[in-house]
Amino acid sequence: MAINKQEHHQLVEEAALWIVQLSSDDESTRKNAQLQFNQWKQNSQQHQKIAADIEQCILSIQNVSQSTQHKKVVKSALKAGLGSAKVYKNLRVGSAFAIASVVLGGSIFYLSDTSIAYLQADIRGDSAQWTTQTLQDGSRLILRGKSAVNINFQANQRVVELVQGQIHVDVAKDPQRPFLVKTKHGQIQALGTAFSVNYTSSTTELKMLHSRVRVQTANKYAKQQVIVSAGQAVSMNQNGLQSGPALNIYNEQQKWNKHQLMVEDLPLDQVLKELDQNYKGKILFNAEALSKIQVNAVLPLDQTQEALKLLSTVFPKLKVYQITPYLIVIL
C-alpha cells in the first residue's frame, strides 16, 4: 500500500537518525542501534526499502574513511552529529541520506579524494575542471577533475607518474627518449600518440586512441607485457593484465575534446561514476541496485544537474536529491 507524503517524510527523518547511530564510533551505541534497527526494518516493506538505502549510505561513509586521517574527521563529525538533535528538524528532507551531509559536512568528501600524494604532485587538477598542460617536450596532458601527476624528464626517458584520477596523453615524438606513464600497477610506453589512463588504488585502465603502446605490469614475480593498439582497452591490477571490451574511439575522444559522455548500453552505475568525476562534490548511489539498468545517451559532463535531469526523464523511477551544493543522492 502506498504511503502519503507526510508518512514518507516521517520515515526519512527516522532513517536519518539511524544513519548517525549506526555510524557511531561508540561500539555500544552501534550494537544497541543495530538491534533496534533490525526491528524497525520488519515493520513494513517501505521500512525495508529505506533500510537498504541507509546501509548503502553507511557503506559509502566507511569507504571514504579508510585512512587514519579520514577516520579522525569522521569520528569528530559523528560525535557532533549525535549530540545535535535540533539539526534533524531543520534538515531538507529528501532521502535517507540527508543526515550524512550534516554529520560529515563537505570536509570528508574533500578528504575522500585528496591524498598527501595529490597535494604534493607536480600538476594537480581541481574538481569540476579539465586541466590542460603542455610539457617541456611539447607533449600535451589533460587532467580530468581531481587528477594529479608527477613529471620526471631525464636525458634518456620521459616519465609521467599518474598519482590519481584520469589523464589524456598526446605524446610528442622523441626517438631518443621513450615516453612512459607509470602507476603502481605497471607502466605504459608510448609507441604512438594518443591514449587515456584511469588510475585508482585497485586498477589502472588504459584506452588506446591512436597508434600503439607497450603495457608492462609491475608484478616482479609474474611480469606480463602486451602491445595495445588503437580501439583496444586493457586494465592492470595486482592479478595482472585483463583485456577490456572494444573501445569506441569517437566516443572516447568526445569525452576529452567536447566534454560529452556518449554511452551505448552502459550500466547506470558506471554512468554515474563518470558524472561523479567532474562534479564539484560527491554523488552517492547504490551501485548494485543500478547496475542492471542499461543507458544509451549523450550527457554533458560539465553540467551535472542537466545530465541527471536527462537521466530522470528517461528513467522516471530514478529519484535525484540535491542535499547540499556538494552532495547529490540518487535512489
Q: In sequence order, what are the helices and strands, one letter per element?
A: HHHHHHHEEEEEEEEEEEEHEHEHEHEE
Number of strands: 17
CATH class annotation of the largest domain: Mainly Beta
Kindly give the count of domains.
Answer: 3
Largest sheet: 12 strands, mixed
Whole-number average pLDDT? 81
The rough form would be described as: elongated
User: What Rg, in angstroms, do the CA atoms define?
Assistant: 22 Å
Annotated CATH topology of the largest domain: Jelly Rolls
N- to C-terminal distance: 20 Å
Assembly state (oligomeric) = single chain
CATH 2nd-level architecture of the largest domain: Sandwich
Residue share in β-strands: 25-35%
What ranges have pLDDT less than 50 throughout 5 or more consecutive residues? 67-109
Count of helices?
11
Can you walk me through this structure?
The chain is of the alpha+beta class. The chain folds into 3 domains: 5-112, no CATH class; 121-250, Jelly Rolls; 259-318. The protein is 38% helix and 31% strand. The protein contains 11 helices and 17 strands. Strands 1, 2, 3, 4, 5, 6, 7, 8, 9, 10, 11 and 12 form a 12-stranded mixed sheet that branches. A 3-stranded mixed sheet has the order 14-17-16, sandwiched between helices. Helix 1 runs parallel beside helix 3 (45-63), helix 1 (5-22) packs across helix 6 (98-112) and helix 4 runs antiparallel to helix 6 (98-112). The radius of gyration is 22 Å and the shape is elongated. It starts with a helix and ends with a strand. The model is unreliable at 67-109 (pLDDT under 50).
